[in-house]
Amino acid sequence: MAFMGDRATLLETGRFVQRHQEHAVDTVDTAEDETEARHRRAAENGDTESMSVLGSLLLRRGDLDGAEPHLRAATADGDRAAANNLGVLLHQRGYADEAAGWWRIAAVAGSAAAAHALGRHYRERGDEPAAEYWLRQSAEQGHALGAYALADLLEHRSDVGAERWLRAAAEQGHREAAYRLARTLDRRAAAEARTGVAAAGMAGSGVDGGSGTGAVRGRGHLDFDTGTRLSGAGAVAGAVAGNGTGTGLGPSGTRYPGYGWTGDGSGTGTGPVAGESGGTGPSTGTRRAPVDTEPVGAGPGPGTGTRHTVGSGSRRTGAGQHSTGTRHAGTGAGTVPPAVEAEQWYRQAAARGHRRAALHLGAILEERGELKEAGRWYLTSAKDGEARAACALGFLLRDAGDEESAAVWWLRAAQDGDGNAANALGALHAARGEQQTAERWYRAALDAGDVNGAYNLGLLCAAQGRTAQADQWYRRAAYAGHREAANALAVLLLQGGDAAGAEPWFSKAAEAGSVDAAFNLGILYAGRDDDRTAFVWYERAAAAGHTEAALQVGIALLRDGEEQDAERHLRCAAGSGSAEAAFRLATLLDRRQPPPGAPALGETLDEKTECEEWYERAAEQGHRRAQVRVGMLAAGRGDLEGAARWYREAAEAGSRNGAFNLGLLLAREGSEPEAALWWSRAAHAGHGRAALRLALLAARHGELDEGERWCARAVELGPAEVAERAARLREALHQELTA
After folding, report:
1. Could you tell me if 53 and 81 are in contact, meaning their C-beta atoms sit under 8 angstroms apart?
2. Helix (H) or strand (E) holding 101
3. What is the pLDDT of residue 607?
4. 169-212, pLDDT tens digit by residue?
């Protein structure tokens, strides 16, 4: 017959069973039947061990009535495994106290599994000293479940000895122990990293910026224990000195309002200038750290782990009477960095089917750039039902350009209650212009307990001009502690003219760690001429990596004559993409250079200096003054074609100096009509020298009235030297006209 569908897929899902597999199952069943029959015959002849084995087989099958007489008979003959399993049977029937009595008998006789079950029994009744005693007895005999349960008890009491027993259980293959040990090491690594950052911060406040070009902006970065791409919202009126734009950008670089935000209220990104119609769109680039929300216990029910034993909970891990006592090679504490060891234990737990370990391992690999393997672990975890892994897999696919597959996994995660995935779906629909569907998913995220849903709803409403609703959603998120929502609310209030109402929200957001809010406070205080307080907030934002704040700190330090510190901040801002910072840094370096001498005959031109490289970087980003300066430097090297190109770019962007210099080059090449057009544009933009050139050109062509008019314009525009020459020329033209 023909099979429908792909054979490999059917095999993977188990819907197609090969004949050899059927034969293997039949063989196993036959072997078990033969084993049971053999032990039953031996038990009928009074063999104690066979009675114990037969009882355990029946107990595993669920035949409690059939198992009990055999277990009681073996127990009466002193078989400790039977006593332990009899306790399990009675516990399953609800006779906990009688079960504990048999577990005590087996534990005293040396059964590690019974000691574990007895310790669990006492812990459930709140008798922690007795629980610790018996669990320790079990753990010290090498019982993995006992070691894990003891670690859980000690960890509950914040006892430092918990890690030792977690490690002991993990080394014997206990996957939950391996996972929790990895989490412990992960937290230690994070704490050490924070300590290192704090120490570095005390040593010096480096600036490592994001993007920005002159206005108060929302900024963004990535976080998933790796980073979150967040949109900040908004700006303060009165942009700082710079050559900036403030259009909100999604992570793909596309400009549109309402691009979904799925972060945790921290970080930096891009946002709109105050006075623009839309708010920043939320970003879909979030990879939030996998945070464990499921309670982690010591395992369901008392396990046993003895030979031929049946437990009612965690699967057997090989400890007990038949354990070899061999420990897997573990990584001792202190021999490797905690983060490295954590990854090893995540990998061990994930390989044993622990879905949250697979999620964390995927996050580690993704952060390291090993995306293919990260995707495999995310997929494994997602297939096992981990919604956060499905969400993370969606982001991985989205970043790879497969938006449709990403949406499938986000939908799966969102339907399982993952708010982050619901936010991502909302962002996806907002980017497509499907505002109603986006709003529905943002509301679903909020219903799932993700406060980012409220923030995203605020951004969506702000982009649509629904200011009152945006205010309500921002407030809801801000009151829940969302710092970027507090910043966005402050921006909204400021745009509405309520500066007094905005300031407390800026302060609240800044104190909670919003870099944008700190920068916005700097703008606010600078607008009040409180430069000292403004500098404090600028410096704070700059230390956290805000590019525009670093630029403002550099400008302030230059004004105070502190060139070395100013240069450091300008370099950081310029290196992070600020064209204005690159131009100011180039200007600073330019001033330090000795004036160039005349080149000797046959002397080769010098290579580009560092200041020229910074000028060019700013020019390539569209900075008009930098473009003019690069053109001048090119002309000085004799590269007239390059000079004309830069002058033209600056002139077409509205630079009057660029238009004037381009006119000079064209006039030198004999293109006076085109030169006159560019001088005319420069003169109308307020360039006095261009007006004087036009006056001279008109006089040379005999257009005396036109020349006199341009002289008057040059006198009006200045500077003084130009005004003086223009006045003399105007007088001469006037005399010529009246002669």
Report:
1. no
2. helix 96-108
3. 67
4. 999 999 999 999 999 999 999 988 888 765 655 444 433 333 33
Q: For residues 64 and 71, give the distance between their C-alpha atoms in angstroms, rounded to a whole number.
A: 10
For residues 375 and 393, is the Cβ–Cβ distance under 8 A? yes
The share of the chain scoring above pLDDT 90, in percent, equals 59
Cα distance between the two ends of the chain: 114
User: Using one digit for the tens of pLDDT, what is the confidence trace for 545-554?
Assistant: 999 999 999 9
pLDDT the model gives residue 228: 37
**Closest Cα partner for 488 from 211, 261, 186?**
261
Q: CA angle 269-273-277, nearest 5°? A: 110
CA dihedral 133, 134, 135, 140 (to 10 degrees): 90
pLDDT tens track for 327-383: 333 444 447 899 999 999 999 999 999 999 999 999 999 999 999 999 999 999 999
Helix H or strand E encompassing 240 = none
| Residue matched to tokens 């302030």 | 556
Residues 145, 174 contacting (CB under 8 angstroms): yes
Distance (Å, rounded) from C-alpha 387 to C-alpha 392? 9
- Paired tokens of 660: 């004037």
Contact 730, 698 (CB under 8 A): no
* The two three-digit tokens of residue 634, written as one number: 């090119």
Return the bridge partners of 336, or none.
333
**Within 13 Å, how many C-alpha atoms sit on residue 421's CB side?**
25
Q: Which two tokens stand for residue 414?
A: 């969102």
Q: What is the pLDDT of residue 700?
A: 86
pLDDT at 11: 28
Residue 720, both tokens: 């003084």
Q: Are 308 and 150 in contact, with CB atoms under 8 Å apart?
A: no
